[in-house]
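Consider a concrete sample entry:
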Amino acid sequence: MARASVLPTVLTGVFVTILDFFIVNVAIPSLQQDLRAGPTAVEWVVAGYGLAYGAGLILGGRLGDLYGRRRMFVVGLALFTAASLACGLAPDAGALVTARVAQGLAAALLSPQVLAIIRTAYTGPAQARAVGAYALTMGLAAVFGQLIGGALIRADLLGGGWRLCFLINVPIGLLVVARARRVLPEGRGGAVTRLDPAGTVLLTAALLATLVPLIEGREQGWPWWTWVSFAASVLLLAGYAVRRHEAPVVDTALFRERAFTVGLSANLVFTMGMAAYFLVLALYTQQARGLDPLGAGLLFTPIGVGYLAASRAAPRLAARHGRQVVALGALVRALALTGLLLAVTREAPLGWLVPALLADGAGMGLALAPLMGTVLAGVSPRHAGAAAGVLTTAQQVGGALGVGIVGVVFYGAVDQGVAEAFRHSLVYLIAVAATLGGLVQLLPSARAAGRAAAGHPVPAAAAPQPAPEH
């Protein structure tokens, strides 16, 4: 097995699962007309995927630890491919929503295996490069999702229209499944050989109790049940924390490491700003500037260019400067968003937005890869799947939380005009970037954080000791 084949294989799986978060946005008007879908059904076409994805990630990581990461990656991608086919062939809105939920569950099974495989297949600088490539793939899928969706709908191959946004996953999935069976290393974690059903139920229920009101709350005017649900999520998490687990789905020992805990929190804050930003920027460009989906997607290109350039340099910079590279990324984002706010306030031509968008993409690229490397570098191989599941769950929860908050900000001001609502949203996003810059100062020292982000092992005294691999 050539190790060089491992990374492209798993990153293709990452790309299609992240892409499906964003590509569907441009397909909504077409599918709504074609399937005669009402507002609630359309909302769940988007929300069903994210809800199932976010709620299933920790369990998906644990299943990889127990039954093999290659096996769960292959099974997850095969199920994702089948669910994508079902989405593309859906005869009505109900069938599409059901298939989207199945897509999300399948994505939750395969996604944690990617970081776990990277964590165990690569060491030292090679691991840093692999984590950087993972972060780059996530960003490019998110940034170019609208562009790809708009291009597919415009192409309308064989009259597929919006269905091509889902059917494109089928040939890709089949090829990667066949490749993964041959090239990916198998591995599992620790001496624990069974699941923790009660703990799994508590954590899944806590995540559902958090995500459902975030998705539904704004649309329904934040009724009483949303606040009851948030309170219930806290109680469920407390119940998990105090319960004795013989085979915990998430080992609380993970949270004893400052790099993991603070890094996890910083990842949550980062994604609170990223997902929300893409949403309001898409609304602004289409509703205030009159661009079609393809034109709006093209405007995301400078973000992708900046992200690509900065992501390639970030691991090397983090090895020398540690946490301050993340802080620099947060500062660059804050300044870029401030520039964007000034341009929007002055109603500048769209071309004037490009420098700010380019700089904003660079800020994202500088921050994401070092953050992820910091979270994972000190985790023992036996906890790699669980840690990856926790990390990706935090990212999904952060995205949902950010969208929920920015939805309140944006739609609270939309009566004053879409441009004004976008300006209000940018103020929130600038505050998120500043919060990230402050939070990363709580990470370990620049030297230790740099070694972690670069993929170097932490000192033995600080690192959890790995159990024998099976």
